[in-house]
Amino acid sequence: MTVIKVSAPGKIHLIGDHSVVYGEPAIIASIGLRCYAIAEESDRIIVNDRQINSGKFGVKEAIEFSTEMENLWSYGSQKNDFSELFQAMKSDSMSFKKAAIGKILKTLKIDSGAKLTLSSDIPSHVGGMGSSAAFAIVITKAIAELNAKRLSLEKINEIAYGIEKLQHGNPSGGDNTTCCYGGLIWFKKASPSNIIIPLKNEIPYTLEDFVMVNAGKRAKTTGELVQHVRNLPDGYRSPRIKKLGECAWEMRSALKARDFKSVKDLMNIAQQNLSELGVSTKKIDEITGVVRSIGGGAKLSGAGGGGMVLCYHDDKAKMAKAIKELGYTPIETRLGVEGARTEER
Ligand code: MEV
């Protein structure tokens, strides 16, 4: 019996959150927390999820459901409003998994089932760490390999992006790209294809002195937060998006020059602009405020509305102390780890 085990890392945005949706660049790092999938042969789809929920459904049911969700996506795309898709995806706790798996089976022309056992170091209830993107990558890779299809990372990423669209409406694709390729990625949404530049030659050293802090459960999903920013008047949103884009270019130069004074200043400017876009929260402001007050840099990561905050200080112990005194726990993680891979069983 064939058994496949694969994994992919989560991600954190150094810069470019939200603005990346509008074609500005982002710098995104994979993190040392991974999502795992074990795939075994089965006539149906059986999902055992150690973190959230488990369920069973038929192959045909999954394919039909993914087609329905794709139709809702097209409708949302025409209206520039994905609320109906988001509503449908929330209707049942298995909806996202069913739509995602159905999409993979349909794209790869697979008509057999799979038993999928999922586990993750990335807490799915904490936003900003790419849990859905890592999931999309691992199930695509696991189902393909179970069916003896060796897909390139490019193809896995393309399918995972389609899955992310069903979950988030109009995401940039930066999350799935980073979870797929790993490392430190310069990502820019572009037509006909996105610009993806691994930064390992330009920035060959390991990023240290960063910690993550959980600012709490998000009340809104990534898709809803992206929609919130889209609904802002153009004249208000555009200058802030442009400023975030400039910060990404400057951050790239600063990282290359190992100029961490500029890196932290840019993180603080980014946080200010993200806050003005309405995606910060009281807790995020509290955490970023205390790190800033002791001379560090801090910003929300990902969609915001809660979730992870990325913090930097050249005196990491001092920063950790200040965060702990505020009642939060600094989370250490490696940045720029390996992307999707097949695991030994
Ligand atoms: C979500 O992790 C990051 C956002 O920029 C959305 C996206 O890139 O699709 C908010």
Could you please describe the fold and organization of this structure?
- By secondary structure, the chain is α+β, with helices and mostly antiparallel strands.
- Helices cover 44% and strands 21% of the residues.
- It contains 11 helices and 12 strands.
- Strands 1, 2, 3, 4, 5, 6, 7 and 12 form an 8-stranded mixed β-sheet that branches. Strands 9-10-8-11 form a 4-stranded antiparallel β-sheet.
- A hairpin with a 5-residue loop joins strand 3 and strand 4 (55-57).
- It is globular, with a radius of gyration of 19 Å.
- The mean pLDDT is 95.
- The structure holds (R)-mevalonate (MEV).
- Residues 17-18, 20-21, 171-172, 174-175, 222, 226, 302-303 line the site of (R)-mevalonate.
Task: Please describe the structure with a list of short key phrases separated by commas or semicolons.
21% strand; binds (R)-mevalonate; alpha+beta; 44% helix; 11 helices; eight-stranded mixed β-sheet; 345 residues
